[in-house]
Specification:
alpha/beta; TIM Barrel; 9 strands; binds iron/sulfur cluster
Length: about 300
């Protein structure tokens, strides 16, 4: 099934939610003070070089309080909206299973009868079989979606940015999750050092080859508190212009399988630490330009996909 509209020649998340739930759905981002195996030495040290860690926002506030703060804002704007608690910062399956159960179930209870699911962002190499088993059972009661950071399928780039994970590990976890029918959203970045549009389209091909239900596409945000920025000062790499980004995204959409839901086409710039690209501050202009480019070039999701 596809969720194209006249305005959006691709499966936008809003349209998908509207058709699935019949109303507005809002994610409530939660910070449950997780860490990451690519920071504490289990998989690597220092983390992915572009990553500044979580925003630190809400770190010391209870889940219940965080939930209420955001829920009140949503309720003011969209009184009918359903909620999806979203465990976002760091790797949100990286705690003992009992603790995970407590956190996830607390969030689901807070959403109550307006809960439209639960979303959990993590690394593909840090979800145990027992956790997947549990999430599979949970998924029978509320829709569970797992966001997996892929960033790129190019292993040279992956090593350069210290991702400390292989594509095989990613594929293995996609298959383990899908055995339990759990929805998967892959997160990818355009503009990583030395990557070309061929790399970006190869990453899309890699996603197309897997049983993945959603994708989040971001531009690289070069932040001044990251290892990547230190590397950049010594060894600058090309930063995408807005026009280049728009063209890459349009071609990614045209090459993407037409059943995949597009959750995002642009990142929210972290204004305090952003060094480049400054155009990412103009999120709505970027989104409009993507729509315009698609329309002017008669492009739509899946146009160039060859199964
Ligand atoms: S991007 Fe994700 S996996 Fe990489 S260091 Fe940051 S939290 Fe860990």
């Amino acid at each position: 099934m596809n969720y194209f509209t006249k305005a959006k020649p691709y499966n936008s998340l809003n349209e998908y939610y509207k058709q699935r739930y019949g109303k507005k759905v809002s994610k409530i981002a939660l910070n449950a003070s997780f860490t990451c195996p690519n920071r504490d030495g289990k998989k690597g040290y220092g983390g992915c070089t572009f990553c500044s860690g979580g925003s630190g926002e809400y770190e010391d506030i209870s889940i219940a309080k965080q939930f209420t703060l955001v829920k009140d804002i949503i309720d003011n704007k969209w009184p009918d909206s359903l909620y999806i608690p979203y465990f976002q910062a760091y790797s949100n399956t990286y705690k003992p299973l009992d603790e995970l159960k407590g956190l996830y179930e607390e969030a689901i209870n807070l959403a109550g009868d307006k809960c439209a699911g639960i979303a959990i962002a993590t690394r593909a190499d840090c979800i145990s079989d027992e956790c997947i088993e549990y999430l599979g059972e949970l998924n029978k009661k509320v829709p569970v979606s797992i966001e997996l950071g892929l960033q790129t399928s190019n292993m040279d780039t992956s090593n350069l940015i210290n991702r400390c994970m292989t594509n095989d590990e990613f594929v293995d976890t996609v298959n383990r999750l899908r055995k339990h029918n759990i929805e998967i959203i892959a997160h990818i970045i355009n503009g990583l050092p030395n990557e070309t549009i061929t790399d970006n389209l190869n990453t899309i091909k890699f996603i197309n080859s897997l049983d993945i239900q959603g994708v989040k596409i971001h531009s690289l945000l070069l932040l001044d508190n990251t290892k990547m920025y230190d590397d950049y000062k010594n060894n600058p790499f090309h930063i995408l212009t807005m026009d280049e980004y728009v063209e890459i995204v349009a071609l990614e959409i045209a090459n993407l399988r037409d059943d995949i839901i597009i959750h995002r086409l642009q990142a929210d710039a972290k204004l305090d630490h952003l060094v480049e690209p400054m155009w990412t501050r103009k999120k709505f202009i970027v989104m409009n330009n993507i729509d315009k480019y698609l329309r002017n070039n008669n492009l739509y999701q899946g146009k160039y996909y060859k199964g």
